[in-house]
Amino acid sequence: MSWNLPPALSNSASQLINVFANGPGPGPTSLVSTLTSNWDLLFTPPISHVDMAVDPRVTDIIRGKKLRYCLCIDTKQWHLFEQVALPDATLCIVNPDGSFVEQDGVDWNWPTRADFINYLQKTFGQHQTMHNAGAAAFEQVSPDEVKVTSSGIWHLAAGETQGTGGGYYYETWVRKDDDWFMKSMRLERTNWYMS
Questions:
Q1: How far apart are the first and last CA of the chain?
Q2: Strand pairing partners for 149?
Q3: pLDDT single digits (tens) 134-187
Q4: How far apart are CA 155 and CA 24, in angstroms?
Q5: Domain 56-194, CATH 3.10.450.50 — does that match?
Q6: CA–CA separation, 177 vs 22, rounded Å?
Q7: Low pLDDT (below 50) residues in the chain
Q8: What does the DSSP assignment read for 166-190?
Q9: Following DSSP, what letter does each residue of the chain receive, concatenated?
Q10: Which residues contact 111 (CB under 8 A, 6 or more apart)?
């Protein structure tokens, strides 16, 4: 087995081996001084990738935009969706088996923000809805991209018909200037019940 050690650690390992094999030798080098001067190198695990912590200001912006997403749909203020998603944002809603939700021959898979909003206006514009976004996990992919997974519950009232469902949102958000916008959204339904 061979070890690919960084040069500083490789030199420290050589020093340690030399100290163990031959004693401290002349000069100030000793096992204790070699260990203490290289402690971080010896006892810090190697980094295989760099984890980027998500700035809390970014998570606050995205959470606020997710609330606005819910408000746009539930209050029928469709124009506000411009503040949430990019014009070329892709949005889809899928069943537990991964197939697109389908209604009246239309797959719920929209290639643009406008297509998504136009469909919602026509289909749900007259219905009462309530969307609740739950806990979210954030992953910084790059300085300008964050992936978000969050839970969601929604309710629908269409005349005498009531519906409730839940699922998980898988989203990609990107930075544009000093703001963040949804680039893609995949809502995976886990349940949907109509009465």
A1: 64
A2: 137, 170
A3: 999 999 999 999 999 999 999 999 889 999 999 999 999 999 999 999 999 999
A4: 74
A5: yes
A6: 60
A7: 1-10, 12-13, 16-17, 19-20, 35, 39-50
A8: EEEEEEEEEEETTEEEEEEEEEEEE
A9: ------HHHHHHHHHHHHHHHH-S-SSS--HHHHHHHTHHHHHSPPPSS---PPPHHHHHHHHHHHHHHHHHHHHT-GGGGGGTEEEEEEEEEE-TTSPBPEETTEESEESSHHHHHHHHHHHHTTSEEEEEEEEEEEEEEETTEEEEEEEEEEEEEETTEEEEEEEEEEEEEEEETTEEEEEEEEEEEEEEEE-
A10: 88, 90
| Residue entry with tokens 């889809």 | 92
Residue 72: both structure tokens together: 């746009």
